[in-house]
């Protein structure tokens, strides 16, 4: 099994090594979340100034993404709520200042990115996560004068899988809708 896993990892690295490399633009990247609040309303918030790398080869239908999400950038529009979200009850920003998503495999349908499977590290725990691509495109940026690729991705995750159990036993939802938007410019 280890030999097979190692061989597959090397094949993936070799394939994405030929892909064009892009740098995520923090001004055009964010991760927003929505969670039901005891069946009454939906709490929203987001993380901004995401950084990282994208490797993408449309012809070979391969890709790779490594996104760093700074927990300190969390913004719900309410500073008091942000302070609680960053506390040890939830995101524990003091001990875990970043979240990270690293892809394992990109899926394509009709030549377009349809899903990205990978791993999300949150609260020091790494678990599998699949992101559905609702939009993905590349274009020649008239401002940057270089190719830019990016898209919108979404999923619903069970926060308790990462040990974020705050108020679940009191009836607060464990399911969180996550939307990630990135744009990345070719290096």
TrEMBL record:
This is Polyisoprenoid-binding protein. The keyword Signal applies. Residues 1-19 form the signal peptide. Pfam families: YceI. Residues 21-185 form the Lipid/polyisoprenoid-binding YceI-like domain. The keyword NADP does not apply. InterPro entries: Lipid/polyisoprenoid-bd_YceI, TTHA0802/YceI-like_sf. Keywords: Signal. PANTHER family: PERIPLASMIC PROTEIN (PTHR34406:SF2), PROTEIN YCEI (PTHR34406). Gene3D superfamilies: Lipid/polyisoprenoid-binding, YceI-like.
